Task: structure prediction
Amino acid sequence: MTHFNAVEGFLSIWTIDYHIENDRPFFGRVERDRLFCCLESAKSELGARLSMLTARDYGRMNDRFSLLVILDIPATTSYLAIETPLPDDNLTYRSLTPLFPNASWPEREIRDMFGITACDTPDTRPFIRKGAWPADLFPLRKDISPHRAYPIERVLLPTTVVEGEGVIEVPVGPIHAGIIEPGHFRIQVIGDTLLSLDAQFAFCHRGIEKLAEGRDPLGALLLAERQCGTCSVSNTLSFCLAVENAAGISVPPRAAYIRVILAELERLYNHVNDIAAIAAGIGMAFVTQQGLVLKEELQRINAGFFGHRFLRNVVIPGGIRSYPGIDPLNEMVELLAPIVRRLDSIVAVAIGNSIFQDRLENTGILTRSNANELGGVGPAARASGVSIDTRCDHPYDGYRILPGFDIPTRHECDVMARFRMRLDEIPTTLALIEAAVKSLPVVSSPIAATIPIIAPGSWGFGATESARGENCVFIAFDAHGRIDRYAVRTASYLNWPLIPTTVRGNILPDFPLINKSFELCYADVDR
Amino acid sequence: MFENLMIAIRSGFLTGTPTRFKPHARNAHGSLEAVAANRCNGCGVCVKACPVNALSVRTTEDGMEFLFHPGRCVGCVRCIDACTKSVLRFIPGNSTFQLPGTPDQKKLLDLSRSGMTSTPIDDGALVSSPGDNKSSEECVSTNLENIKFPLSTEAYKTADIAVLRNSLHCRHLDVGSCNGCDNEMIALGGPHYDVQRLGIDFVASPRHADALTLTGPISRNSLVATYETFTATPKPRLVFAVGNCACSGGIFEGSYAVFDGASKVVPVTIRIPGCPPTPGDILNALTEGLKQLQTICDRE
Ligand code: SF4
Ligand code: SF4
Result:
């Protein structure tokens, strides 16, 4: 309660007005000129972490734009949303990057998409705009049609330059050598040693946030599902949580448990995939191939029991669409245990191999302070000793009702730690699936609540833990119950900036390995 | 070392034959079929339920015809849920690839001559694609201004395909996919599918490739990369559009940030519908599709 009072005290000092409601993020409006100081005090007093920074266009004549900051207040299980109206004649604000280094990307993105500029921001390069539209056009503004084609120009972004004798730059991508998503890297090396890395994204930008505008929740659901293949459940779940949050409903217990099962199944196949991918990073074909076998078997289980290899089409706003029944689910649990046992024996081979140890240990160190400062999330942050997990910190759905579970952390901070982190999490995942299946109510109760007509102007926020970390969604509705703003911030978006901090001093061939130990998606960053 | 061998031996022989993977390897959706056409009363709720206009209705002289566009269907099963008469069902593993010249729609239900009176469907359900006002040619400037998109179609000759001699080297090109399709392509390299035994390989450079496997609708941000990869691929270059996004733009069709499918930019040889197509579907298209392509070329 004291933390609660602290937040309330904080809000009463800094905001023009504020709302505190049960089961919703705290909300306050702050004047633009006080925003920086307000956040500074939130950081120092409440220990806030920047979860999401985005903007809104209300599409009206006056007070059209506002800035939206969503903070995670670790001491409470709630988030804090701060909205800052911007004056129409001066769409600028003081850059938040000095306060929260991970604000740099969203600031660049807000500049591209809304034309709202952060003053004194250290990096002014475009982030999403890679030539798909002209510089003076801002796609997320309301007067821009989502369905127009704009002239394409070739944009070559300046990169961080490192100069000196023997320093060379290795450009990589956006088309990579393997079956990988597109990203462009400029890697500066001296000899074989990495000096710095500049990563550029948005080659997968599909305009999802804009396309969702004007749709009803069911229409936009398809977009949320298809934002990223391997985070499909998590993104959909965040989306649905946000819609349910806005509508003020909660899902029936059966749906809440099934959602846990889905989320954990997704985590399981992702973790197995990551383990295989890390082994692929050092060319250890045996482990890679065996990992792919297990991943395939897990995906077949997904398809067999839930109808889709990526578990799409199950989660819907209000609950779930269908599920196979309790007996099949028990059967599924029995299938999972042997797969995990096989995984253990494969991993034992990997870990016992001296080359494997040599390549993974002390490679790509993500220091705890970097992980904290840059707001890292997910297994990557947990492998650096940061205990952060949305399932515990902000429990949702079945995680609220299921008995407590451990969130392991590690302290070695290297690739090996991230490799082992995934292994450490798998027992928790299995236990959660088992517990969720056991707790499923037998009585036939509804599996989805109906979404009532959503009140004009309401908004909601949802956050879930994907296999990569915290995925957040903010949704605001217009007067007709249609989506007015759909903003997504995924774990990959938060964790990508961590990678450049880990590569310096490593050798160039270790870069793919380090990259794979984070195993982030590009589609999630680019949207 | 022995441990490796033991694990390898214990995992047994996993690889399936390209055309016959067990049903549980597939998504519940495959090809939409009217399993109980006689129950259909032509109410058209399925058409209205479809979020991507993959179902449409054509009124003929004496009845109506339901058409299904596999290249657009994202398998959301909403049409099936909407149908009160349980007419529709997905037949898993029935989805097929589309060769050049195949119509991108198939007749799902023919209610003509059935004497069935049909409720007219309001036109609102049959919206044309929102991307209509996009023309890919007007929108390219700087550096690419002299290039006309889509790039011209190259006619394939038997010799071109025969030259591959069952050895197809593909360059993967992710141009805006959600990585669902990419993951399924990675799965192809695993022991369950093992493309390499069939002479198919994914190579690191377009210069080594016979074919591009394209996933995603081609985002406008990656036009330059697409163009350069395509032109770097030696002829005869085939293009496989993997997934609905690449076939038609899929769920992203009409967005300001994408082209509506690969065919708006490069000539597409074979389309592989599905969201995502399962590894089995992709494998089938890479092997069978190529054979059928050769037959078509032989005929011409
Ligand atoms: S399953 Fe396919 S045809 Fe049916 S509603 Fe969904 S997209 Fe349309
Ligand atoms: S077709 Fe579906 S799975 Fe494939 S890239 Fe597009 S949205 Fe993703």
